[in-house]
Amino acid sequence: MKFADKIALVTGGASGIGLATVQGFAAGGGDVLLADIDAAKGEAAAAAVRAKGGRAEFVRLDVTDKASIAACRDHVLARHGRLDILASVAGWGHIQPFVENDDAFIAKVMALNLLGPIELARAFFPGMIARKSGRIVNVASDAGRVGSLGESVYSAAKGGVIAFSKSLAREGARHNVTVNAVCPGPTDTPLLRSEPEKFLEAFIKAIPMRRFGKPAEVAAAILFMASADADYITGQVLSVNGGITMVG
Question: Catalytic: which of 3, 58, 125, 154?
């Protein structure tokens, strides 16, 4: 897919699905702003993309901090004058029974997975509307479509991302701004690998294809939704999950 002359911002871009998305945009000729809270990993990841001939710049971003989001927006607009593509990939979860969730855990899950994408959209959506051009791709989860044992609040947050994306798509449609959601199933990322082995084994058994997804496979769906090939697609939810859920 071609992204020449496109400015793309990818949150959570230092690793996993976010990094694969950054690499995809860069390979397609885009100018990529790799946004992440981890400066060391982010700088290294952006440098690696540049070493392969791509255009990538690290921008520190804490999606739970409104001031950080505002600073990121101001940097993007000062440097590039616009943002064409917003890919909200950053997220976090941990398998834990709901009865064990404390206030801090719930607040963190909601801030990272729901409020972050909402605040990022608030930062960049108005500019896209004014230019009558833009793409927003929010990474949700199949947990938000069908639920997930031990991830009740995470499922609620990701369900919120799906509903938010559909509603925002209605507002952006007449202005040529599309908004779509991509729902990964269990994907082989550092976050997934941090879970106990018994959970990983259970996931594998539940996936019809009997393997975890690869970050690049999820990134391919994000890139498609952000590309010209998806000009007439908005308000949609695309699962990339090896068949673990089959939602009509």
Answer: 154
C-beta of residue 56 within 8 angstroms of C-beta of residue 43: no
Give the integer Cα–Cα distance in Å for 220 and 145.
20
Query: Going edge to edge, which strands form the sheet with 55-60?
Result: 55-60, 31-36, 7-11, 85-88, 134-139, 177-184, 237-240
Q: Is the pLDDT of residue 108 over 90?
A: yes
Residue 200 confidence (pLDDT) above 90:
no
Helix (H, G, I), strand (E, B) or coil at 158: helix
Both tokens assigned to 201:
């084994």
Confirm whether 232 is a catalytic residue.
no
Please report the pLDDT score of residue 197 as a whole number.
81
Global pTM reads: 0.93
Which residue segments constitute the domains of the chain, with CATH numbers given? Answer: 69-240 (3.40.50.720)
